[in-house]
Amino acid sequence: MSAERISVSQFLSLRSGGKGINTSDVLTYLYLTVGTILMFGPVLWLFASSFKTQAGLLKYPPPLLPYQQVQVEVEGYDDPLPLFNVTMEDGSARELAQARRVGIEAQMVDPADPGAERIKVNISQREPVEEVKLAWENYLDPLIEIDYFDFITYLKNSVLVTTVATAITLVINSMAAFALSKYRFKGRDAIFVLFISTLMIPITVILVPVFLVITSIGWKNNLWGVIIPGAATPTGIFLLRQYMLTIPDELLDAARIDGGSEWHIYWRIILPLARPALAVLAIFSVMWRWNDFLWPLIVLSQNDYFTLQVGLNAFQGELQIQWHYVLAMTVVTLLPITLVFAFLQRFITTGIATTGMK
Amino acid sequence: MRLIDILDRITRPLLLLLVMSVDRILTLIQGRVGIDKMGYFFVLPNLLIFGIFVLFPMLLNLYYAMTGGTKLFPADRPFVGLDNFATLFDCDDFLSPNSCQEDLFWRGIFNTIQFVVLQVSAIVLFSLLTALALNRRIIARGFFRSVFFYPVLLSPVVVALIWKWVLQYEGVLNAIVELFGGESMRWLLDTNWAMFWVVFVSVWALMGFYTLILLAGLQSIPPELYEASSIDGANTWQDFRFVTMPLLMPTMFVVLVLSLIRAVQMFDHIFVLTGGGPGTRTQLMVQYIYTTGFSNQIQLFGLSAAASMVLGVSLLILTLLQLRLGNQSSLA
């Protein structure tokens, strides 16, 4: 067996030998390291870039950290002046602030001695003095105002859509799942099959007629038009029903004997017991709604009703992309999901993984 | 925590009142119809929304596909029978989109097929490799698992913007390429590279999900089987070939089907990343449906609905194929 064959096969092996480090371990870590750089590098790069100024973003090749030119207050000037390293005629170097620039000639002043005569130098003789400084204005400006990009409104709309839609989905899906798992009524199985059969039918297939329904109700450019059509998720019904089937019927019967109404049973017994499944559905729903794009794009055509995703897309689609703002707002958009992931990471990954496990 | 407490204090009495009044009304109804019929009540809200926004539109879509004009309301639309389908399928040569009346539709289909083949095979390959790596006894396993899963949670718009920024002409990728002596490229404007990057970015964004499914599949293989095979003197390759692969097949099949169905519907990432360009090089089927019905000046709802039915039928075929093959593999 050739050396290459051994390493490939060992790499594919399920169990590492446990006796020191062998080739397959090295290959595994190599793969995972390259993978980590590929998976996480671009996100970190976005994050680092979002703190660069508009001028800083134009630098090529791009520096890793956000540098900004140092500005100094000079007596006699209202605004801070940019600081340069100037190579003088005699070869010595001095740190001077630029007071004015005319063509290729710059008029410099010495910050320590602002009264002295200005020194005229060729712009090729000076290099900007830079320091690492975060351009928080990328994050703060959009909060106040940029033309055509009303971040606060988009954020508000997204939060509204996500929370309301998730609440509605949890309530109506759990009610339906309760009915489908705990009652015997005519047409029950047909209804279940009907719900589940649409698992593979995305809204993409019925865009036009759903748009008509929304328009008829008057929900075009209305957040309800985004919230309601996707509320009756087949995934949620399936998930909750499977879970509720494991709740013993005796519990319900006992409550009935105690005189509890059916609604009482649903609210006081089923919902608390189904909490793990509800939590999973809630996480899914938040993700779906926060990230939803195509349907909001169709329903919402006015700026005031945009969600974050639609607004961000419109903003990046302008002729002159204002990358410094786009990057910062992209970071803000991915932040909530990242935080949710950071706190619920174990829960989400094992939640998906354990479904296949015992 | 404080804010939550305050909110709780305000909403709790209101909620309680609501629940109690619902309870009152329902107890009355329950007294009349009996316990089992209450099932209808519980299923009603979901059924109503489902009926209005899923079931009814599915039927209406058929009608739209058979009407013409640019008006939205069905009453204003002239019935044209199968004309929309005739338009979509009006081709001199089905293998060359240029000879078709709706060349964009056919380009969309060909691009979709190419995209699906490339993307699904890449996803299956890389999520399998990653799952196998993560299933070994390694340090920081949780960390690596999170890293590969994290992009799954990001919105398509965010994913596309992250990569648009990396791939732009004066972006970090070109800087790295130049560092190694290569030449800068306009990656997303190059006809050959654009499709590569669209596939790459979507694999980047989605593979973590399938990795988790495969990892769960790997972990459900009983360790006794490996003990038995090592007693039989099997090497690691034989372990993989004769123990892992056969037992992982059902999971692989699930991954294949899910990623296939997902790939056919791809839209968001690509729309933001390339807008279907350069030209129509990365324009897939869903984008054709969207453009024809909603973003063009003249909104051809009928044509859009007809195209969406073609998409729906393709999905149906894939789903049926899955059921068929799924049954076979469980019988075997």
Provide keyphrases for this structure:
heterodimer; A: 358 residues; alpha+beta; SH3 type barrels; MetI-like fold; 6-stranded antiparallel sheet; two-stranded antiparallel ribbon; 15 helices; 8 strands; 57% helix; 10% strand; elongated; disordered N terminus; B: 332 residues; mainly alpha; 2 domains; 74% helix; 0% strand; globular
Overall body shape of chain B: globular
**How many distinct helices of chain B?**
13
Mean of pLDDT of chain B: 89
Report the CATH superfamily of the largest domain in chain A: MetI-like
Task: Summarize the model shown.
With 358 residues, chain A is α+β, with helices and mostly antiparallel strands. Chain A has helices spanning 3-12, 23-49, 54-57, 137-144, 151-182, 188-197, 207-217, 223-227, 234-245, 249-257, 262-273, 275-291, 294-299, 308-316, 323-354; strands spanning 67-69, 71-72, 81-87, 93-102, 105-109, 119-122, 126-128, 130-132. The longest helix of chain A has 32 residues, at 151-182.
Q: Your description of this structure?
A:
The complex is a heterodimer of chains A (358) and B (332). The longest helix of chain A is centred in the middle third of the chain and has 32 residues, at 151-182. The two termini of chain A are 38 Å apart. Chain A is built from 15 helices and eight strands. Chain A has helices spanning 3-12, 23-49, 54-57, 137-144, 151-182, 188-197, 207-217, 223-227, 234-245, 249-257, 262-273, 275-291, 294-299, 308-316, 323-354, and strands spanning 67-69, 71-72, 81-87, 93-102, 105-109, 119-122, 126-128, 130-132. Chain A folds into three domains: 3-49, no CATH class; 67-132, SH3 type barrels, CATH 2.30.30; 147-318, MetI-like (MetI-like fold, Orthogonal Bundle), CATH 1.10.3720.10. Mean pLDDT of chain A is 85; it is low at 1-6, 13-18 and 354-358. In chain A, a hairpin with an 8-residue loop joins β2 (71-72) and β3. Chain B folds into two domains: 1-35; 100-331, Orthogonal Bundle (MetI-like fold). Chain B has helices spanning 2-33, 38-65, 83-88, 103-134, 141-153, 156-167, 172-179, 191-219, 223-231, 236-264, 268-273, 285-295, 301-331. In chain B, α4 (103-134) runs antiparallel to α10 (236-264), α4 crosses α12 (285-295) and α12 packs antiparallel against α13 (301-331). Chain B contains 13 helices and no strands. With 332 residues, chain B is mainly α. Chains A and B meet through α1, α2, α5, α6 and α7 of A and α1, α2, α4, α5 and α6 of B.
